[in-house]
């Protein structure tokens, strides 16, 4: 008998706000958090824009010495986890620490530490490389640092599936609770890769938008889209078994009811052209929740603003939902914050939970020129106030990884 799983806490660091309230308010107001990259000189780079986190000071949230021994992707995760744990009212003194786990992923880890130390290696030799380089760099350290900071001794994992990382991390946490391996999981994704090698690498792949207008750079499903805009941040949620949440009188935001994960097994960067892999992930998540396509009110699309992704995801939604695809509201959070890579699924899942709580579906900001091949309802113009009983969040990652989460209004 698998256990029911509910969402009781939310935490976010994003290009439009460093907490959930600011992030959600920004989405409702169609606030675009994209601008010129300030971390390094982009003169020789084709991509000039990114969704940077603003006014983030880790020392306000943790001991400065501790902050110094963490790269930014870990700092983002630790701070977002703090907000989520506090929001959920989790008191670790009252919990069995071995029943509280972590499933926080990062697609890349710290490119900053690699760049910094490689420069030292070339200029000053191997003896000058920071002894902490490896623990600063590796992607599992976000999960490790969250666990260390808050004394969480249960299952602690780092799922890495490129841009599907956050969604898979929440999905695997969901399964861990269903299966009885944990009562509480701190789950989501984090990323901070707006660095010279990160931007150069994605640019060389021709994946990044070359637009210099922040309002016309991340424009999912728009006919003029020409690539994604790199973003950064973290999205962390608290999942609990229903029994555990009710026993401590927790506020329940929503119920996580379905999870689907598939692989296209097709190409290292392009999704399957017929959308079949992503469609199957949606079908599996809907079936897992014992629901039907017609029950879905809202889809938070992966919607990266690359030509292939948006076209193939549109095909996938039609394949998964059939005739109903034209009736469902679909929008892309990336239209305002860019693509947070491993953190995307975390913040987009939070957007789905807030849509259910608030009865509002945010717009796909910047969508102006309709693409005849992307012909579904992408919430062009303004957001829509409507009852959202069931939402699904899609993520598709390089390597062909597809993940879908289904979250619904909680009914006791």
Can you describe this structure?
The protein has about 400 residues and is α/β, with parallel strands linked by helices. It has helices at about 20-30, 65-70, 70-90, 110-125, 135, 140-150, 165-180, 195-205, 240-245, 275-290, 305-320, 335, 345-360; strands at about 5-15, 35, 50, 100-105, 155, 185-190, 235-240, 255-265, 300, 330, 360, 385, 390-395, 400-410. The protein has a ten-stranded mixed beta sheet with strand order 5-4-6-7-1-8-14-13-9-10, sandwiched between helices. A two-stranded antiparallel ribbon has the order 2-3. Helix 11 links the parallel strand 9 and strand 10. Helix 7 packs across helix 13 (about 345-360).
- Compute the number of helices: 13
Low-confidence stretches: none
Distance between the termini: 17 Å
Specify the structural class: alpha/beta
User: What is the alpha-carbon Rg in Å?
Assistant: 20 Å
Percent helix range:
25-40%
Biggest sheet: strand arrangement: 5-4-6-7-1-8-14-13-9-10
**Strand segment tally:** 14
For the residues shown, what is the average pLDDT? 97
How large is the share of residues in beta strands? 15-25%
Give the overall silhouette: globular
Biggest sheet, in brief? 10 strands, mixed
Q: What is the N-to-C order of secondary-structure elements (H for helix, E for strand)?
A: EHEEHHEHHHEHEHEHEHEHEHHEEEE
């Amino acid at each position: 008998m698998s256990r029911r799983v509910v969402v009781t806490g939310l935490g976010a660091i994003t290009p439009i706000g460093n907490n959930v309230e600011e992030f959600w308010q920004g989405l409702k107001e169609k606030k675009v958090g994209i601008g010129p990259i300030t971390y390094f000189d982009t003169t020789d780079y084709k991509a000039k824009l990114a969704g940077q986190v603003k006014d983030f000071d880790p020392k306000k949230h943790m001991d400065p010495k501790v902050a110094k021994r963490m790269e930014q992707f870990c700092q983002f995760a630790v701070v977002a986890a703090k907000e989520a744990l506090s929001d959920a009212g989790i008191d670790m003194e009252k919990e069995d620490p071995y029943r509280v786990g972590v499933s926080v992923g990062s697609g890349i880890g710290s490119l900053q530490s690699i760049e910094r130390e490689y420069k030292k290696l070339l200029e000053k030799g191997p003896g000058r490389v920071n002894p902490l380089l490896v623990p600063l760099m590796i992607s599992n350290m976000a999960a490790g640092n969250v666990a260390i900071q808050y004394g969480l001794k249960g299952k602690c994992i780092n799922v890495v599936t490129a841009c599907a990382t956050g969604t898979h991390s929440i999905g695997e946490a969901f399964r861990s609770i269903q299966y009885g391996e944990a009562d509480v999981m701190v789950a989501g994704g984090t990323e901070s890769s707006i660095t010279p090698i990160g931007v150069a690498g994605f640019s060389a792949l021709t994946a990044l938008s070359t637009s210099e207008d922040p309002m016309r750079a991340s424009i999912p499903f728009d006919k003029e889209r020409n690539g994604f805009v790199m973003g950064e941040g973290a999205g962390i949620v608290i999942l609990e078994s229903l029994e555990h949440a009710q026993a401590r009188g927790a506020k329940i935001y929503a119920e996580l009811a379905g999870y689907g994960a598939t692989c296209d097994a097709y190409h290292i960067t392009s999704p399957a052209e017929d959308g079949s892999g992503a469609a199957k992930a949606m079908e599996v998540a809907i079936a897992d929740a014992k629901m039907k396509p017609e029950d879905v009110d809202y889809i938070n699309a992966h919607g990266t603003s690359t030509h292939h992704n948006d076209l193939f995801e549109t095909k996938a939604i039609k394949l998964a939902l059939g005739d109903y695809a034209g009736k469902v509201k679909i929008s892309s959070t990336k239209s305002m914050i860019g693509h947070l890579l491993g953190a995307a699924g975390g913040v987009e899942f939070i957007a789905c939970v807030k849509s259910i709580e608030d009865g509002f579906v945010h717009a796909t900001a910047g969508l102006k020129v309709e693409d005849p091949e992307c012909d579904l309802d992408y919430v062009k113009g303004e957001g829509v106030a409507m009852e959202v009983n069931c939402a699904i969040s899609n993520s598709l990652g390089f390597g062909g990884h597809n993940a879908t989460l289904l979250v619904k209004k909680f009914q006791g």
